[in-house]
Amino acid sequence: TARAIADQAGLKAADLLTGDELAALSEAELATRLKTVSVFARTMPEQKLRIVQALKANREIVAMTGDGVNDAPSLKAAHIGIAMGGRGTDVAREASSIVLLDDDFGSIVKAVQLGRRIYDNLRKAMGFIFAVHVPIAGLALLPLPFGLPILFGPVHIALLEMVIDPVCSLVFEAERDEEDIMRRKPRDPDAPMFGGPLIAWSLIQGGLAFLLVAGIYITALNRGMPVTEVRALTFFSLVLSIVALIFANRSLSGSLFSTLVRPNGVLLKVLLAVAAMLAATLLWPWATLLLRFGPLHRSDLALSVGAGFALLILLEIAKPFWRRLQPA
């Protein structure tokens, strides 16, 4: 019966182990057999517990499903115990980490998919917030050692944070699943969420944004542009570079095209708010005076937009090389 059910479920049942056979195995022999066995039949509750413990000893991540009182020890011993919420006993539900309210095993797949999406979005938000502060800090410090005009005051930083904070807390939270989310291999549970490769990628993103905007700032000064206009041009270029960083971090595994076609209503609202903020800083005299901005010409605006696009293209070119450095 177990072999027939396994075949219908798509499990390879060539090597099947019964409870009587399991009872005759030592712990070492059981650990060896578990490398090939995928189906067990006629097992007692204490034997289920042995299987769970042996799998854990082999450094496997173990999930256990059950609904009866006798399943409680195994549910508790597994890394993830999953109990039936409808027909499961109270003991089984208390011993489990997850309770399936609909008693549908398909919900386990949905939970895995949701967990991977949440994990992805957390990493995207962390990578973005680390990257975006590199050019902000760099541009705030750059004028000091070279005696250049100070670019940003507290009001400019406050405006930038009004863009960054909603992106981290709302935009990336609303990101949908990536196309390959259920085709990936399980990640190493000991791997840090924000590890060396992602930190390096964030530094590369932020470093490129800083070099691009700093180049615009220094070039504008060298051409004799008034300081107020230089400040406005640099601020606009920085904000549009931040927008480029948002799009670059929307996907860690997909292409730019897949990122653009994947809808995100919150992102659209944030982009409209950013556009309204930039327009206000140019067209509202009180805001222009507060920020000490000078007038910008069409060529200046085109340069800022071009800088954002250039940064996005550079990051998309570099992203495949970064992916190759990721652990398998």
Task: Characterise this structure.
The protein has 328 residues and is mainly alpha-helical. It contains 15 helices and five strands. It has a three-stranded parallel β-sheet. Strands 1-2 form a two-stranded parallel sheet. Helix 7 (106-141) packs parallel to helix 10, helix 10 (196-222) runs antiparallel to helix 11 and helix 11 (227-249) packs parallel to helix 15 (298-324).
Q: Features of this protein?
A:
328 residues, mainly alpha, three-stranded parallel beta sheet, 15 helices
Layout of helices and strands, plus pairs?
Blueprint: H1 2-9, E1 16-18, H2 19-23, H3 27-33, E2 39-41, H4 45-57, E3 63-66, H5 72-77, E4 80-84, H6 90-95, E5 98-100, H7 106-141, H8 143-146, H9 154-171, H10 196-222, H11 227-249, H12 256-261, H13 265-283, H14 285-291, H15 298-324
Parallel strand pairs: 1-2, 3-4, 4-5
Helix pairs in contact: 7-9, 7-10, 7-11, 9-11, 9-13, 10-11, 10-15, 11-15, 13-14
- Uncertain ranges: none
Radius of gyration, CA atoms, in whole angstroms: 28 Å
Number of strands: 5
End-to-end C-alpha gap: 37 Å
**How many helices does DSSP assign?**
15
Measured as a percent range, the helix fraction is 55-70%
Into which percentage range does the β-strand content fall?
A: 5-15%
- Order of strands in the sheet with most strands: 3-4-5
Would you kindly provide a brief summary of this structure?
With 328 residues, this protein is mostly helical. 65% of the residues lie in helices and 5% in strands.
